[in-house]
Amino acid sequence: LPALRGIAAGSAQRRDLARLRAALVLAVGAALLLAGLGRSDPRLAAPMVLVGLALALPPLRRLLPAGTLRAAPGLPAGIATMGLLNLAFFGIDAFVPLALIEVRDRSISLVGLALTATTITWTAGSWLQARFSPRSSRRVLVRLGLGSLALGSLLTAGLLLPWSPVGLTPLARAVAGLGMGLAFSTLSLLVLETAPAGKEGAASSSLQLVNVLGSGLGAGAGGALVGLLAAGTAGDPDAAGLRQALLIQDGAMIAVLVLALLVAGRLPARPPRAGVSDSEGRSEAASVAGE
Questions:
Q1: DSSP 82
Q2: Binning pLDDT at 50, 70 and 90, where does residue 86 land?
Q3: Sign of the alpha-carbon dihedral angle for 15, 18, 20, 23
Q4: Taking the CA atoms of the chain, what radius of gyration do you get in angstroms?
Q5: What is the Cα–Cα distance from 176 to 262, expressed in whole angstroms?
Q6: What is the 3-state secondary structure (H, E, C) of 228-276?
Q7: pLDDT tens per residue across span 97-125
Q8: Rounded CA gap, 269 and 131, in Å?
Q9: Closest among 218, 91, 93, 194 to 142, alpha carbons compared
Q10: Cα 222 to Cα 201: distance, rounded to the nearest angstrom
Q11: Nearest to 209 by CA among 89, 80, 123
Q12: Distance of CA 278 to the CA centre of its chain
C-alpha cells in the first residue's frame, strides 16, 4: 500500500460510451454465432450464424487496434497471434477429457494427470520466457512456443487412434503446455512493449478481448463441430464417429497453429526504443549479438 501511494496519477480520459456499446454488440453477435453453430436444423443455424457475424465483425474492428484482422506488422500482429494461440490451444484442450473417457475408455485419473501436466509446464514455459526474454528475440520465443504447442497438439491427436499408447497423454499435454507458457507470456510482454505511450491500457484490453474470444470460439465452435460430426453415433461401442469428429477438430486447430506461425513472422524481434533511430537500433542489436 505505501508503494501504491507513490505511483504518479495517470492522465484523465473521457469515458468512451461508443466502445462500451461496441462491446455489448460484439457480445450479442458472438453469442448468436456460437448458438447458431450448435443448432442441428440448418434453417435456424444459418440465419443465426449470419446475423451473429454481421453483428460481431464491425464492433470487433472498432475495439481492436487498426490492422489486427489482417495481422499488420507490430502490435496488430501480436494481438492477432494471441487470438490464434488461444483458439488453437483451447480448441484441443477442452476435448481431452472427452477423448480419454469416451473414445479411449480411460479413467478420470488419467484426465487429471494430463490437465495437471499442462498446468505445470505452462508455468515452466512462463518461467523460461522470463529468464530468456531480456536477451532473446520476441519473434523466436513466440515461434518456439507455437512449435511446441503444435507438436503437443499433433501428439494429442495421434493418441485418439486405437493402437496408440494412451498412457503418453500427460506427456503430449506437457509439451503443449510448455509451448503455451512460452508463447502466451512472450506475446503479453510484446503487446505491452509495442503499445503507444499512454495506450497500454487499451492494448491490454484488446489482448484480453482476443483471449476470451479465442478460447470461447475454440471450445464453443469446436463443441458444435464435434457434436454435429458425431451425431447419430451414440451407443457405438468403438466410438468411431466421435473419434473421427475429434480428429477433424484437432486437425483444424493444428492448421490454426500453422497460420499463427506465419503471422508470428510479422512480430518485432525486439521492443522499440523511444528516441533510437533505425540505424542506431541495428548497430545496438549487432553489438548485443556479438557479445
A1: H
A2: very high
A3: negative
A4: 21
A5: 19
A6: HHCCCCCCCCCCHHHHHHHHHHHHHHHHHHHHHHHHHHHCCCCCCCCCC
A7: 999 998 888 989 999 999 999 999 999 99
A8: 17
A9: 194
A10: 31
A11: 80
A12: 31
What residue has cell string 528475440?
137
Q: Are 220 and 37 in contact (CB under 8 A)?
A: yes
Q: Is 222 helix (H, G, I), strand (E, B) or coil?
A: helix
CB of 101 closer than 8 Å to CB of 87: no
Tell me what percent of the chain is helix, strand and coil, each rounded to the nearest 5.
75, 0, 25
> Measured between alpha carbons, how far is 93 from 45 in angstroms, rounded to an integer?
26
Distance from C-alpha of 58 to C-alpha of 80, rounded to nearest angstrom = 16
> Measuring CA to CA, which residue among 179, 187, 222, 193 is closest to residue 208?
187
pLDDT digit string, tens, across residues 33-59: 988 888 878 888 889 999 999 999 999
d(CA 24, CA 2): 37
pLDDT in the model for residue 287: 36
Q: Which amino acid is at 168?
A: L
CA 242 → CA 110, 148, 181, 254, 261, distances in Å? 19, 26, 29, 18, 29
Give me the long-range contacts of 224-229 (CB less than 8 A, separation at least 24): 224/34, 224/37, 224/38, 225/37, 225/249, 225/252, 226/95, 226/98, 227/38, 228/40
* DSSP, residue by residue, 136-189: S-HHHHHHHHHHHHHHHHHHHHHTTSTTS-GGGHHHHHHHHHHHHHHHHHHHHH
Dihedral (C-alpha) 202, 13, 58, 21: value to the nearest 10 degrees? 120
Residues 203, 162: Cα–Cα separation, whole Å: 45
